[in-house]
Amino acid sequence: MNDSLLLPLAIATPLVCALILLGGKNYWGRAVRAIAFVGFVVPAVVSLWCWYSYAPSTPGGYAFIGRWATGLEGLGITLHLGLNGIALPLFVLAGVVGLAAGLFAIQARAERAYQYLLLLLFMQSGLMGVFASIDVFFFYFFHEMALIPTFIMVGIWGGRDRQYAAMKMTVYLTVGAMLSLAGLIYLYVQSDASSFSLIDLRNELAETPLSASVQKYAFGFLLLGFGILVSLWPFHTWAPLGYGAAPSSAAMLHAGVLKKFGLYGLVQIALPLLPAGPAQWSSILTWLALGNIVVVGLITMTQRDVKQLIGYSSVMHMGYAFLAIATASTLGAGAAVLLMVAHGLTVALLFMLATSLYHRTGTFDMHEMGGLVKKAPVLAAFFVTAMLASIAVPGPGLANFWAEFTVFVAIWQWQPWVLFPTALGVIISAIYGLRAVGRIFFGQPTDAFEKKLAEPVIDLRWAERIPALILFAVLIAIGFWPRSITEGINAALTGGKSPTSEVARSE
Amino acid sequence: MDYQSLANANTWSAIAPEIALGLLALGLLVLEIVLPRAHHRLIPRAALVGQLALLAGLLFTISRDAGFHGASFGGLLVHSGIGDAFRVFFLLTSTLVTWMGIGALERQTLPRVEFFHIVLVVTGAMMLLVQSHHFVMLFVALETVTVGFYILVSYFRSSTSLEAGLKYLILGALSSAMLTFGIVLLYGVAGNKALPGASANALGFDALHTFLTLNAGNTVAIIGMILVLCGVAFKVGAVPFQIWIPDVYQGASTPITAFLAVGSKAAGFGVLLNLVTQVFPVGDSVLRHGLVFVAGATILFGNLAALTQRNTKRLMGLSGVSHAGYLLLGVTAATYPAAKWASGAVVFYLFVYMAASMAVFGVLSHLAKTDDAGLETDEFVDLGKRSPLLGGVLAVGLGSLAGIPPLAGFIGKVLLFIAAFQAGLYGLLGVAIAGVILSIYYYFGWIKMALFEFTRVVPREPGALELEIRAMPLGGRVTLAVLGLATLVLGFFQGPVSQWLNFG
After folding, report:
1. Which residues pair with A365 in a beta bridge?
2. Spacing of C-alpha A463 from chain mean position
3. How many CB atoms within 10 Å of residue B220?
């Protein structure tokens, strides 16, 4: 098969499946699940194949390139798809988490399932498109395409406070998206490039870099817009609320993959195109990121609701990624990419298992749980492992460990004092993570919960285990073989010039 | 040149579409006399078929590049590619209004044929209006449009409809007065032989442009230009000439509201584009600052006023004001040479706006009760469940108006924003972005009502009246589906339209 058709295949399959469901409605009956299954499996397989066959030494860094005109080529907008070393890991992340979320949604049999799967497929199509786009316009376009279904899914299938959460998410994320769009257009107009394609923009700006003040404004726009999308403190309040209310597969896809859009934009677009930008903003960014780590970390410790806890902890982990970007070094940027992938897989696992937990206990409140390990040992094993991965314990969390460790090295080389509050964050996350699993699975159950546990509790079913195992498998593969993605990241960040750099060395 | 020779230097074939529309309009009246009474219901359908045939012919001519371009009638009219785009636009609009009118009038006991007749005449006048290159032509065409709307707005003779008609009449007369006064001032000052570039034919756009460029600082000329722009601003509903909009939109029957919201507004923008790019040397004058200010105020007013609006027709009217603001942003950008695509972006946005608005008004018109003064957004609860087509098309239309990707409205807004960036209108862009965010609130509130039955907080009282959903004929369903699909497809693929509008 022609290489250039792989990426369109991964984007179009979920979309086509969604359209089939749209036309078919409920008439399809059982076929709904089969169609949805196809829509999730094909992108995952394509992404894994790309991972396998991508050679970091590709000239220009981009592989699987294809370019199609949609009618706006006069404006410099074409559907230009391709993957480089930075995009590839995230593309794989989108495929894998999408598959897990899809499988989990298919087995969950939600109310009006075909509509739910339709929206999820639509979102999946957008997610594959975001990371496969070389064209900056389509990068944004696909992001919005994935974002809109989130609002609807939260609004209809969400849990407590879904109305409020959906509206709040809509407003915050629209503001963030609009600001980043403004930044991207500003960048394009100022660059005088012939097209929105990132390759053209890069070449153009390598020849004639923008003036320092333009770089400052453009970077500021992008930082603020992307920052809101990635829940940068103090613009993070939508995230725990939204994730707390969102149905699990939507939360998996959003927290695991879509939220990485902003960080990806900063690493892939802002850092290389606006090299003078970070110097202007890094001090502010550092303080805000420390807000993410310390302030949100402390808030996380006080949570009783499992899902809120995971939501807050995901906001907290974004702080590390922001710090890594603030260093504006190759090492930092590479660490940010690694962290995105590791965190995306972990947080998706946690959201999924939290919902499985809820199906067994009927509550998200940790203070009402306890001693679940006796009744559901497999669930306990999965959940504890996932939580350990989240707090970056080497073993299950080896990938997270490499990522955070590299972030620390990058910070040490940049501004050593920042390391102390950052290290405090590691302790905080260990405290809330271990306390949570202790409370849920090993603690003394309350009387009411004891009564509930007296009834037979079904342990984790295979339908739920398989998506979890898929996520674990990829997480562990990256943990034990980080070269498979870091080489590509290196090549993309250094323009393929130097064969080694800090990211690879840190393995 | 005297008017005798103006009349002799004519090129009748250049205005074939307008003539055909006029003949079709007259044909309807003849049919009413000729046909026996039992067959009168065929007349609107004849109008529909005639317009579709005309549309096909027009598109064919354009695709073969066989249309007449250049000046005709001694410079009264100038035909161009963008004029052709507007012709197609107005013809599409009138076809859709006729389609809506057929459904709406069947529920009333009113004379039918005149309605469709006037719609056709107004459409022909709109076509001439955007192609006019002379203030006499412009004024005559504009008055034909306006007088047609005086009748159409109060056509249903209910108290709200009559009130709306009166409001439109008084304010319309005011705007016509301003426009005339402005034209006269320009004519007077440009005929002053003491000034450089003075011309005896100062109503022609070319001569006037030369004169105005040579006398950039002339106070009388500036006042004249401002008054002319004010007259046009009334048509498009720009602040501070937007006060008539909510009441007139609510009072007029839904097809006419749609005609006002889409056709009349687009005609205004066609004229505005012509004036600011070809006639008035906007330069760095008070006019440009005025345009920037009015655009910003229009965007903000429309969105803020729509925030708390529950009546759907008023909501469409007020949010339509904000769309006029975005379009004004594009028009303002078009006055900068750096913004190469600004005019094309404005026309593209108009097409997108038409598809989305017509989808929404089509649904509204079908659901309208007998008084047709608009439904409350609350009444749309469960619409998506009871009629997936109506709910879906409504959601797509509103989503496109809100500018949500992957719908066409998003592309339209992005093109306008790019033009504004190229022109360097950063402050105005900030306002526009704030406006888009505000608009998400009310558009999504309505979509939420229509699609998510789960969201009903208070259960409906048992005695409360359910919204009646009539069965829709096949043609109507197809039309709505096509409008929804067009909005979706234009979001992904803009090929034919953008080539036609010459983006680069």
Report:
1. A305
2. 23
3. 15
Q: Specify burial of residue B109 (Cβ count, 10 A radius: 0-12, 13-18, 19+).
A: exposed
What is the arithmetic mean of pLDDT over A2-21? 82
| Angstrom distance (rounded) from CA B486 to CA B96 | 14
What whole-number percentage of chain A has pLDDT above 90? 1
Pick from B358, B391, B416, B357: nearest CA to B467 = B391
Is a pLDDT exceeding 90 seen at residue B259?
Answer: yes
Sequence-distant (≥ 6) Cβ neighbours of residue B324 within 8 angstroms: B236, B237, B238, B242, B265, B269, B298, B302
**What is the residue-wise DSSP string for A346-399?**
HHHHHHHHHHHHHHHHS--BGGG---GGGT-HHHHHHHHHHHHHHTT-TTTTHH
Residue B280 and residue B416 in contact, taking contact as beta carbons nearer than 8 Å: no
CB B160 within 8 A of CB B301: no
Instruction: Assess contact for A337 and A90: CB atoms under 8 A.
Output: yes
Max CA separation in chain B (angstroms):
79
Decide if A185 and B421 are in contact by the 8 Å CB cutoff. Answer: yes
pLDDT tens digits along B216-249: 888 888 899 999 999 999 888 888 888 889 989 9
Which residue(s) pair with B70 in the sheet?
Answer: B79
Residue B8: the pLDDT is: 63
Do A346 and A390 form a contact (C-beta atoms < 8 A)?
yes
**Residues of chain B contacting residue A179, judged by C-beta atoms under 8 Å apart:** 433
Q: For residue B79, list its beta bridge partners.
A: B70
Give the distance from CA A202 to its chain's centroid. 25
Q: How far is B428 from chain A (nearest CA, A)?
A: 12
Q: Which residues of chain B make contact with A25, given a CB cutoff of 8 A?
A: 388
Judge: B437–A178 Cβ closer than 8 Å, yes or no: yes
pLDDT tens track for A62-84: 888 888 877 777 777 888 888 88
Give the nearest partner residue to A163 out of B405, B436, B455, using CB atoms.
B455
Report the distance separating Cα B361 and Cα B312, nearest Å.
10
Are A174 and B440 within 8 A, CB to CB? Answer: yes
Give B388's contacts in chain A (Cβ within 8 Å).
25
Q: Identify any residues that bridge with B77 across adjacent strands, giving them in sequence order.
A: B72, B132
pLDDT attached to residue B502? 62
> Where are chain B's structural domains?
283-504
Residue pair B265/B237 in contact (Cβ under 8 Å)? The answer is yes
How many contacts, defined by CB atoms under 8 Å, are there between A and B?
83
Q: For A348-369, how does the pLDDT look when each residue is reduced to its tens digit (9 = 90+)?
A: 988 888 888 887 777 777 777 7
Nearest to A71 among B406, B455, B498 (CB): B498
Q: How high is the pLDDT of residue A505?
A: 40
Convert the pLDDT of each residue in A433-460 to its tens digit.
888 888 888 877 777 777 776 676 777 7
Strongest mean pLDDT among A269-283, B106-120, B210-224: B210-224
Domain boundaries, chain A: 3-505
Q: Which of B405, B437, B504 sits opposite A141 (nearest CB)?
A: B405
Q: What is the mean pLDDT of chain A?
A: 82
User: DSSP 3-state assignment of B198?
Assistant: coil
The Cα–Cα gap between A33 and A397 comes to: 32
CA distance B474 to chain A (A): 17
d(CA A92, CA A200): 25
Q: How far apart are CA B319 and CA B353, in angstroms?
A: 12
Lowest mean pLDDT segment, chosen from B15-19, B164-168, B201-205, B498-502: B498-502
pTM > 0.80: yes
- Inter-chain residue contact A137 with B494, CB threshold 8 Å: no
Smallest Cα–Cα separation from A157: which of A203, A106, A112? Answer: A112
**Tokens describing residue A480:** 């034990």
